[in-house]
């Protein structure tokens, strides 16, 4: 008797094949209650490229901002919000997943049934589990993201889903449905180099349709998805792309975030023997405008071996925040050291120091690979050549009264971060001296403003590193 998981796999494979996807050298298996479904090799890979192609999925089967804007039920409403700047492209895909999960007889049901229903990332933690994160940057990031998602659900998602699914809802819209869709996107989305002609077809007649499953097509006039500050977290799954990846009919690609059913079943491994590529013309796969998984080397994947890809060089905090897992002895793990913005408001002369930081382009945080700290504050890099050292002396001190210490070129902490710490650590007398130096520099030219390097030089000449390093020690002890 077939298990529920086997029935789901069977329906999903039928759905893939109906949408012209091809499982060539792999099969789908259930990996267990905590890992869901994964891809496994169905035979030992040979040396020629065609035999090393594991899975081919047409781009028409992808979930992207373009496909959502062309969706018959969501397109018009989403296009209006998108054009008015009310939502971004990621919101479109998360809304689409929310709607299709709740829709009766969704054409995407075989795919959605294969997706996990719970996640291990902190957004799904209990209150007690979240408290275990207190004192880390992950704790604050989780709290902020939860508030943002709850506000977005109440303000935009809830009523919009009810309106779109009028008469189709089998149950009430819940915040958990939106949270689920958000987690699906962040754990499975890829940054994909679509052929330019696919994203921006010349005419409606030339367009083959960007939406699968009998949806109506249409021309688009949108820009490639923007990458905000968190964009480096979820969607950096980069391919060691081949020629087809970067060459379209118009000689360029448009990078778009999206979900590719089937390929998104690959779990993470640090060093992957598998890569993915985009074939614009189909000369490699025989399937135009498609994405495919490719075994990267001869005999690297054995029969029944799980097919994994690399999610990128991510530390454990980032892996936990996005995907809900960590890696023992992660070589890409890093330490984040930051000075909280809210703490800056309470330091003496906060307004003046904030202005100085803005001019200097100081950074409030830095990310360091943990192995850089194996030798303490200092790296193994050698001193720079004499010309560069002399140049840095000039950039730090125009009077030459304070020389750059010999440790400066070996310190592992970025100069932009140390600049911030020097400024924050200044006392009243030092702040007055910095102001005096800058006034002397500007002279009677009222419209002249000191440059960022000149302000840094003034702060360095007055303060040196004593206060900054003490503040750094305090931050590391707190961390």
TrEMBL record:
A Gene Ontology molecular function term of the record: protein-lysine N-methyltransferase activity
Coiled-coil features, chain-numbered ranges: none
Protein name: SET domain-containing protein
